[in-house]
């Protein structure tokens, strides 16, 4: 019974105030990171303002591990823009260049075909079964700027579960 | 305050902040550059102009492309991606852009060039509207920096048209 008494004593001696201060500080850090992330989502108008390049299909322009800054404006989608899009049923976004645009007279809706700079053929193989073109609602944003190498942190964290750290879910899930 | 952990943390934070600042300044310096590119495209020959079995028109043509894009390069430029797109209007679509050819220019020395090539990508319409169609050929370029903001612009060359009948 002696060790129960010791455990109770050691619990009583933890300074509640210090513990609470630490918990609140941690909460503040996590919350301000979340605020910055959501604020960026508002400003850039895109669900995911920053993405990490995961494949080599846009080399030598974008290498695996680069970070892209996205922006989504109401401007129409035009050939040559680098867009990030989601295929129905796949969760990983793809970053490729638009090579064909067909915009309808009446509705203003667009059909868009994309291709990775380093790929031989266009992306029709990646699209869903029977899908020939992308529409505007598939596109999450246009790439407007980039930073090299910084994305390796995210790649290491998501691909090596041993080092996985609990960050606000948005940052990891959307990459 | 003097343990190894604290010092390493302070050092890393400082290093990352300075690096981020350098990236921003590098990107801002790109704005000082005022580019003055020039380009010319001639269509040498229409090799093939037929309706595909599925129904859409297809064109194969040979182009002479000459351009001088050296003024686009700055010290912060990694590469310039250029492509030629045919742009035209049809009854159903207010704008069609079809990329015909593209290239990556990795360095300033290679930015002044002349090339004769047939279209790399298939010039296929969204229908059967290409007979006698007038179209523009636009040379687009996309300056991809070593770090920072990307710039894109284009030169529009108009006055090209396709034959009235299938070849």
List the helices and strands and how they pair.
The complex is a heterodimer of chains A (175) and B (167).
Chain A (H helix, E strand, L loop, with lengths): L1 H12 L2 H29 L5 E3 L14 E5 L10 E4 L8 E11 L5 E6 L23 E9 L4 H8 L9 H5 L2
Antiparallel strand pairs in A: 1-2, 2-6, 3-4, 3-6, 4-5
Chain B lengths: L3 H26 L8 E14 L5 E12 L8 E12 L4 E13 L6 E7 L4 E2 L9 E12 L2 E2 L1 E11 L6
Antiparallel strand pairs in B: 1-2, 2-5, 2-6, 3-4, 3-7, 7-9
InterPro entries (chain B): SPC3
Subcellular location (chain B): Endoplasmic reticulum membrane
Organism (chain B): Gossypium barbadense
Q: Gap between N and C termini of chain A, in Å?
A: 52 Å
SSE string of chain A, helices as H and strands as E: HHEEEEEEHH
Helix tally of chain B equals: 1
CATH class type of the largest domain in chain A: Mainly Beta
Number of helices of chain A: 4
Largest sheet of chain A: 6 strands, antiparallel
Looking at the structure, the CATH topology of the largest domain in chain A is Umud Fragment, subunit A
Helix content of chain A: 25-40%
How much of the polypeptide of chain A forms β-strand, as a percent range? 15-25%
Helix content of chain B: 10-25%
- Uncertain runs of chain B are none
Overall average residue pLDDT of chain A: 79
Helix/strand order of chain B: HEEEEEEEEE
End-to-end separation of chain B in angstroms reads 81 Å
List the chains of the largest interface with their residue counts: A-B, 28 and 32 residues
Can you describe this structure?
The complex is a heterodimer of chains A (175) and B (167). Chain A is α+β, with helices and mostly antiparallel strands. Chain A has helices at residues 2-13, 16-44, 152-159, 169-173; strands at residues 50-52, 67-71, 82-85, 94-104, 110-115, 139-147. Chain A has a 6-stranded antiparallel β-sheet. The longest helix of chain A has 29 residues, at 16-44. The radius of gyration of chain A is 23 Å and the shape is elongated. Residues 163-175 of chain A have low confidence and may be disordered. By secondary structure, chain B is α+β, with helices and mostly antiparallel strands. Chain B has one helix at 4-29, and strands spanning 38-51, 57-68, 77-88, 93-105, 112-118, 123-124, 134-145, 148-149, 151-161. In chain B, a hairpin with a 4-residue loop joins strand 3 and strand 4. The model of chain B has no long low-confidence stretch (mean pLDDT 87). The chains are: A alpha+beta (175), B alpha+beta (167). Chain A binds chain B through residues 60-62, 76, 78-82, 97, 99-105, 108, 111, 115, 117, 122, 143-148, and chain B through 23, 27, 78-79, 81, 83, 85, 91-99, 102, 104, 106, 121, 126, 140, 142, 144-150, 152, 154.
């Amino acid at each position: 019974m002696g060790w129960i008494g010791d455990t109770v004593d050691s619990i009583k001696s933890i300074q509640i105030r210090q513990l609470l201060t630490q918990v609140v500080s941690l909460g503040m850090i996590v919350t301000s990171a979340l605020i910055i992330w959501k604020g960026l989502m508002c400003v850039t108008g895109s669900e995911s303002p920053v993405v990490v390049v995961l494949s080599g299909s846009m080399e030598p322009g974008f290498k695996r591990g680069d970070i892209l800054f996205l922006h989504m404006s109401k401007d129409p989608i035009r050939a040559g823009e680098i867009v990030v899009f989601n295929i129905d049923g796949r969760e990983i976004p793809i970053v490729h260049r638009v090579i064909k645009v067909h915009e309808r007279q009446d509705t203003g809706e667009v059909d868009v075909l994309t291709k990775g700079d380093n790929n031989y053929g266009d992306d029709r193989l990646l699209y869903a079964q029977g899908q020939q073109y992308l529409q505007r609602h598939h596109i999450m944003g246009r790439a407007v700027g980039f930073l090299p190498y910084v994305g390796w942190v995210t790649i290491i964290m998501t691909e090596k579960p041993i080092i996985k750290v609990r960050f606000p879910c948005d940052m990891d899930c959307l990459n | 305050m003097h343990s190894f952990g604290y010092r390493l943390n302070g050092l890393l934070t400082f290093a990352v902040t300075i690096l981020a600042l350098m990236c921003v300044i590098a990107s801002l310096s790109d704005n000082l550059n005022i580019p003055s590119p020039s380009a010319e495209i001639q269509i040498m020959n229409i090799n093939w102009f037929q309706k595909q079995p599925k129904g859409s028109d297809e064109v194969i043509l040979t182009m002479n492309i000459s351009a001088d894009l050296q003024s686009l390069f700055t010290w912060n430029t990694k590469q310039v991606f250029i492509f030629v797109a045919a742009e035209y209007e049809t009854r159903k679509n207010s704008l069609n852009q079809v990329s015909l050819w593209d290239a990556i220019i990795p360095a300033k020395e290679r930015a002044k060039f002349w090339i004769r090539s047939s279209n790399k990508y298939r010039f296929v319409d969204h229908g059967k509207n290409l007979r006698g169609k007038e179209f523009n050929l636009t040379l687009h370029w996309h300056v991809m920096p070593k770090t920072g903001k990307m710039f894109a612009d284009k030169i529009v060359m108009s006055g090209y048209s396709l034959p009235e009948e299938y070849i």
